[in-house]
Design a protein that fits this description.
34% of the residues lie in helices and 20% in strands. By secondary structure, it is α/β, with parallel strands linked by helices. The chain has a single domain (2-225), classed as P-loop containing nucleotide triphosphate hydrolases (Rossmann fold, 3-Layer(aba) Sandwich). Strands 1, 2, 3, 4, 5, 6, 7 and 8 form an eight-stranded mixed beta sheet that branches. Helix 2 packs across helix 3. The longest helix is centred in the C-terminal third of the chain and has 20 residues, at 175-194. The radius of gyration is 17 Å and the shape is globular. The two termini are 27 Å apart.
Length: 235
């Protein structure tokens, strides 16, 4: 978290982490597509010879908190290829929460586990406590053969403390739900440490509703959680 009192701005950083081709890039692309152009930054790519890192700023500067603070959310992916571990570690610096994108297929279980261990190691290298910095798990590619059943994923959820979201990111299913869950977890963690509601007048409800106010949440579970979009709102 970056809290700039001089510029009256709060910046929250979310990192999408996981194996190569698990769907990290697709998640960010889908979020970007569903966000109004007026409140999103450019989707930028840092290319390597065999992978890429994507990032963009989500800029809901159309609202200020009760104390006049503007809120910015930065979304990043990390390169999934094994050789880019140093880049993953750098991108992870200062993360307020992590969305771990796992491949639902049973054949991907070993790779998912290896990247989970890699995430924990790199968090510790960055002085990020995995017990304090929220991690959300998205099980992606739920439409492919040989995926774990819902019951198996539920069993995984019960074994850990991390929230779990199912997704078919390439069709946009579960993408915004994952973002909502990781941002909610990030806010609650920051509130416990920095008392955002008292310090800058930003409640969890306002944070989430304003971030998603200029996103197209049609057909997602968020329609049940968030206030209806005002008439004439742009997507």
């Amino acid at each position: 978290m970056q809290l700039n009192h001089a510029q009256r701005e709060l910046t929250v950083k979310i990192v999408y982490y996981g194996p190569g081709l698990s769907g990290k890039t697709t998640n960010l692309q889908m979020v970007h597509q569903r966000t109004s152009p007026e409140v999103r930054g450019r989707l930028l790519t840092v290319e390597t010879h065999d992978d890429r890192t994507l990032f963009f700023d989500l800029l809901p500067v159309f609202f200020s908190t009760a104390n006049g603070f503007k809120v910015k959310v930065k979304l990043f992916t990390v390169p999934g290829q094994v050789i880019h571990n140093a880049t993953r570690r750098i991108v992870l610096q200062g993360a307020d929460a992590v969305a771990f994108i796992a491949d639902s297929r049973r054949a991907a279980g070993q790779e998912n586990n290896a990247y989970w261990k890699n995430l924990v190691e790199n968090m510790k290298e960055n002085n990020l406590d995995p017990a304090q910095v929220p991690i959300i798990i998205q099980y992606n590619k739920r439409d492919l053969p040989d995926t774990k059943t819902d019951a198996e994923i539920e069993e995984t959820r019960k074994k850990g403390k991390e929230p779990v979201v199912g997704a078919i990111a390439i069709r946009g299913i579960g993408v915004l739900e994952t973002l909502y869950t990781v941002l909610q977890s990030a806010y609650r963690s920051l509130e416990a440490r920095a008392h955002l509601a008292k310090t800058i007048g930003l409640t969890e409800k306002e944070f989430l509703s304003q971030v998603f106010a200029n996103m197209d949440i049609t057909g997602t579970e968020l329609e049940k959680l968030l206030p209806p979009r005002p008439a004439g709102a742009r997507t």
